[in-house]
Amino acid sequence: MKYVVVTGGGMSGLGKGVTSSSVGVLLQACGLRVTCIKIDPYLNIDAGTMSPFEHGEVFVLQDGGEADLDLGNYERFLDVTLTSDNNITTGKINRTVMEKERRGAYLGKTVQVVPHVTDEIQDWIQRVAHAPVDGKEGPPDVCVIELGGTVGDIESCPFVEALAELSYRVGDFCLIHVSHVPVLSAVGEQKTKPTQHSVRTLRSLGLAPNILACRSNSPLEGYAREKLARSCHVSSGSVLSLHDVGKNVWRVPILLRDQKAHEAVLRVLNLDVKEPDLKEWTARAELFDALVEPVRIALVGKYMGLTRINKDAYFSVEKALLHASVALRKKLAVDWVPAEDLEDGTAQENPNAYKAAWNKLKGADGILVPGGFGDRGVEGKILAAKHARENRIPYLGICLGMQVAVIEFARSVLLDMQDANSTEFDAETKNPCVVFMPEGSRTHVGGTMRLGSRRTYFHHNDHHDVGCMAARLYGNVSYVDERHRHRYEVNPEMVARFEEAGLWFSGRDESGERMEIVELGEHPFYVGVQFHPEFKSRPGKPSPVFTGLVAAACGQLESVLQQSHGESNGFEKTDGVGKVVEK
């Protein structure tokens, strides 16, 4: 097993996740099998209880693990399926060490950070690194490990020590250090001192970089490259420029390839493989840059922030929209609409924000309401669902977005249910359209939801002579496996009445009692899903329901539905960038 470790210095937010993913893509393109591990030094067991404002979205893995959004980057870039073990946290390591101590596994020794915690980290890494993640037999060739946080942080010290020990234990170990090379406006030149100090800190902790990945606004100048090579004791060919590529992160692997980054990595790992083949990846990146005709999707969310849009809270949703838009040859334009700004209270308190939010909603080609927790902004989401239903605007509701669509229908169409609600928001409602799942925990929030991959079976509509939109998008299969993260569900006791009124539950779990997909038959595209399809969307293999939304928004839905009979992902077989190669 070969190891590539990516660390960061100076500051957070440098793009270590995209760098790690891009290195993985480059190694895959050389014919190597790649797996990934993300180390998060926080004390939490996982990301499941963290606020989206602070930490961004919680990415749900196939086995139900709640992880950092960087694992979503790995899965999308490398098209692999990771597990919760691919995300190591201080909380997980400490829990494992303490469980061993209670069992007497350390034979009476004093349990210490070194060697017990550092050994546990190394054992975890080596165990997970050998697990296949690409559906093939046998272990991968290379494991890319990203160390979260910034080198020198007190919480990451045990992990840095463990990685230093691992480098001697395994031998084939390449360290890539990501650091910032700023340009001071008063001077106008790239300054290398922050990177020099960052590398000095790294060396003082027992690790020496083999490659420097320098983040900057513009390409790294020759003088800066030579200065860094000399002061940080690496060759000039191992100083990489990771300058800004705009919104097209698919350019990053190409940027690395053009600087022969693969040669630098392979040389350290003692590997002799073919040159990287990035034809498909390059075609997709060029297609992205060439798109002109826009499709506008209003994303109505609650985790928007007060001073700036917190896009990380909906990271996978935005990426899934992008995958679908590129496949349909449209330039994605997301209008971020804070759900609270659609509510009547905002009209009184901040009329400008109210007007701006409604102008975005009314100007959109399609509306997407994603998941969320808590009652703040829910009435705004309900208003968005109502606007889409009444004005026949394509609508996709995910998790809570499906639930608010059901609540809105009950309030507006079933005339005796104007007070319909979810028990999450009103425990005393007389018409509970959405209820707490019986197997859920009311005392513990971490890891207690309905999580991970679950099967949804498509159901025939007995009340209306229309086909199942979702089933057609998925290629007319009988069932589909998608990832979930929820505590509340549509009240099964009310389903019959909803369906009699025209709201059809076209997807259910294996028992037939838990509602997974809802559709409005007389609407051009009005679909809600209890699961999170964004987590399995990939470049070149977009999520079928996201494709349906974008296709409906740009007038291509019938074409997509006609094609979908040949492939279960809703498309004809393509070369990964949308060109049909087989029907």
TrEMBL record:
GO terms for molecular function: ATP binding; CTP synthase activity; identical protein binding. The keyword Metal-binding does not apply. Signal peptide: none annotated. Pathway: Pyrimidine metabolism; CTP biosynthesis via de novo pathway; CTP from UDP: step 2/2. Keywords: ATP-binding, Glutamine amidotransferase, Ligase, Nucleotide-binding, Pyrimidine biosynthesis. Its EC number is 6.3.4.2. Residues 2-271 form the CTP synthase N-terminal domain. The keyword ATP-binding applies. Residues 311-550 form the Glutamine amidotransferase domain. It catalyses: UTP + L-glutamine + ATP + H2O = CTP + L-glutamate + ADP + phosphate + 2 H(+). GO terms for biological process: 'de novo' CTP biosynthetic process; pyrimidine nucleobase biosynthetic process. InterPro entries: Class_I_gatase-like, CTP_synthase, CTP_synthase_N, GATASE, GATase1_CTP_Synthase, P-loop_NTPase. Pfam families: CTP_synth_N, GATase. Belongs to the CTP synthase family. Catalyzes the ATP-dependent amination of UTP to CTP with either L-glutamine or ammonia as the source of nitrogen. NCBIfam families: PRK05380.1, PyrG. This is CTP synthase. It comes from Linum tenue. The lineage of its organism: Eukaryota, Viridiplantae, Streptophyta, Embryophyta, Tracheophyta.
